Amino acid sequence: MKRSQARESAFILLFENIFNPEYSFADMQEFAADSELFEIDDFTRALYTAAVGNVAAIDEEIKKYLKNWRIERLSKPALAILRLAFAELIYMDDVPASVTVNEAVELAKKYAVEKDASFINGVLGSAVRAGQAQ
């Protein structure tokens, strides 16, 4: 599985987690297997567990880069994409920040409204420029 596909799978899991935080990773794996819509590989698992396991810290990081927005007002797809991207920026050392930002924008173009893609690009760009990522 390509990493872009793994990110998309992790996004789907994180999006589901927003609505059903009580689901375990095993529940999510079962959902993926039953739906046959996506796969879960090691990279997907690592991204998902980093994001869910550190959601409070990640949300605090996201809040630092929101200009005139509250995290509670973000669309659910944008929130899931930002959580995924910040998890990757903070906890994944082997991925260049530019790749993370580009992949997040592509996910936003596919799953969110048009304005979310530029918003996500701006938030992540600010984080990268501020030294949040290597």
Top keywords for this entry?
134 residues, single chain, mainly alpha, N-utilizing Substance Protein B Homolog, Chain A
Overview of the structural elements:
The chain has 134 residues and is mainly α. The protein has a single domain, classed as N-utilizing Substance Protein B Homolog, Chain A (Orthogonal Bundle), CATH 1.10.940.10. The chain is built from seven helices and no strands. Helix 3 packs across helix 5 (76-91). The protein is globular and about 40 Å long. The model has no long low-confidence stretch (mean pLDDT 91).
The overall average pLDDT, rounded, is 91
How many independent structural domains?
1
Radius of gyration: 14 Å
Strand content: under 5%
Q: What is the N-to-C succession of helices and strands?
A: HHHHHHH
Give the number of DSSP strands: 0
Topology-level CATH name: N-utilizing Substance Protein B Homolog, Chain A
Separation of termini? Answer: 25 Å
- Sheet/helix structural class: mainly alpha
The CATH architecture: Orthogonal Bundle
Top CATH class: Mainly Alpha
Give the overall silhouette: globular
Question: Helical segment tally?
Answer: 7
What would CATH call the homologous superfamily?
NusB-like
> Which spans of ≥5 residues are poorly predicted at pLDDT below 50?
none
Helix content bin: over 70%
Query: What does the main sheet amount to?
Result: none
Task: Note the topology.
Layout (H helix, E strand, L loop, with lengths): L2 H17 L5 H11 L6 H12 L1 H10 L11 H16 L5 H15 L2 H16 L5
